Amino acid sequence: MAAPKRSRLQREKDLTEISRLYLAGKVQAEIADMLKVSQQQVSYDLAILRGRWQKAANTNIGELKARELAKVDRLELEYWDAWQRSLEADKTIKTKGKVQQVDDNTHFIREQPAEQTAHTDSGDPRYLQGVQWCIERRCKILGIDAPEKVEQRSSLTVVYSGNADPGKL
Fold first, then answer.
1. CB-based burial of residue 9 (10 Å sphere; 0-12 exposed, 13-18 middle, 19+ buried)?
2. Is the four-CA dihedral 6, 12, 13, 19 of positive or negative sign?
3. Can you tell me whether residue 91 is helix, strand or coil?
4. Rg of the chain's alpha carbons, rounded to an integer?
5. pLDDT tens, 33-80?
6. Degrees, nearest 5: CA angle 136-134-146
7. Would you list the domain boundaries of the chain?
């Protein structure tokens, strides 16, 4: 005789309890005894739970990847902005003029010629290294890097007796 059909609410309560007990290390027969259902019902419910767990894991992985990609994108923009600022410092700026200086003792204002020069050879390469890191990280998260070739070496030694034909080994 078939067991009475569970209501939707009762089924969800049972699934929650089966999940808790299963993850606590209980076997299907123990869970069935505790919930007063058949072991086959517990097996069926565990299949439903595994499907839900898998779906949740896939969804969570996708969300985690999206969040990490957004962080990498933001960081890359910062690196590009810093790179552009470092290039602007590459320009040579010469300013000529007079600076007024107040003599503290006499309160007399003197004018002196002033020249200021700022020059660097190029932009800061650390920012481009940061951009490169972001690109590599993005490729790794998305799994678009080519698989790495791993060389395997074998040290197989074949031993045969004098009667055996080495060509047949």
1. exposed
2. positive
3. coil
4. 37
5. 999 999 999 999 999 999 999 988 888 888 989 999 999 999 999 999
6. 15
7. 10-115+125-142
Q: Which residues contact 41 (CB under 8 A, 6 or more apart)?
A: 3, 32
Interatomic CA distance for residues 76 and 61, integer angstroms: 22
Instruction: Tokens 């320009």: give the residue.
Output: 91
Match 């027969």 to its residue by tokens.
29
Distance set, CA 11 to CA 28, 84, 112, 157 (Å): 16, 61, 90, 61
DSSP state of 14: H
Whether residue 35 contacts residue 14, with contact meaning beta carbons closer than 8 Å, is answered with: yes
